[in-house]
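I hope you will forgive my troubling you with a question about protein structure. The full record is reproduced below for your convenience:

——
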Amino acid sequence: MSKLAGLVRAMLVFAAFAVTHARALEAQTLAQIGARLISTDRALDAAHDTLNRLVDEMKRREMPLDSLHVGAVTVRLTASDFSSSTIGATERAMAEAWADAQRALGDGAGRAASHQPIVLRRHQVANRLQLNELSFELTDRPGAGRTVTAPLKASAAHAAIIDLLGALAAIGEPSALDVYAGPWIPAARIDADQWSEVAIDLATAPSAVTRDCYAGSVKRCESALGLSAVKDPVTEWYSAEDWRVAVDRAPIPPNEAPERRERRERCIAGKAPEICEDFVREHPVARPLIIDSRRALIGLALELGGAKAYDRMMSAHGTALEILAAASGHDADDLVGVWRQRVLAATPPRVAPMPREVTTMLAWSALFAVVAFRKRK
């Protein structure tokens, strides 16, 4: 469908181009040319809008006619394409996903799940050696969805459905929350395995701000989570030792110039933190914690806020932290403090630093910060 849209728009642009250049042979004033360009641009916009409406209509017509309903969750499919076992597994997955969504989204679960149906499709395979593939998807979100294999397991169907319910729950979310964690809201409670993954992220992230968070600073946790303003991420999130580690892990450019190689080696040897800083500043600085760690905070806010938390979240205004605090019914620092407690409780022993190691990390972070500051003076 996107190829058709692109072809039609290209034809319209070419036609407008031809007309404009043919008329350019005539004597025209600058005002006339400008007016014609504006008119052509408006005509293109109108044609593009019409084409989008046609594409949307075709998508609606292509949607399968058969439906499965469990609570507010609807899955559209062509029933004749699937075996009874596949349909049964899908219905069991829908029931589990609907129960999860009610626990996570409270009174707003029905509104979130009702935005649009989830579509289940079967894909043709070219030969017998290929797996029989199915997909759960949304019609207006090409990037959303999951591909699974047949015979379909209820666990795989559940994971796909709960993921798409998260995309549906984010429809109409406050823009600050969208910028913070993308167009997805957890439609199920954050489970023990997910908390463990967040704990590993916090314990192993090579940044001063995450080490400070681990050691007990809630404000630094807020910074690590991307919830507070940062003027200079390079120095506020990372220490001089972190810069050295980042340079050591970075891929080496092909045909690296000898002088650059010499500078890089001096940095890695720990002899020139200011050189490491220069290398780090060559590219945008990554956030200390991955997006799943940030989304765990959203899930926690929904959990703490009770049945009305999702509704409060969707109607709240302000920064991401203010929105999450409103949803949770807690003070912002208290919310992040609970997040930290959950993370520490879920930290596997193999990655949890001992108290002496934490103290050492903080001491080295402070030392490198002082050295880097003096170098910049």
Q: What stands out?
A: Residues 355-377 have pLDDT under 50 and may be disordered. The CA atoms of residues 103 and 369 lie 45 Å apart. DSSP finds 18 helices and five strands in the chain. The beta strands are 66-70, 73-77, 118-123, 133-138, 141-149.
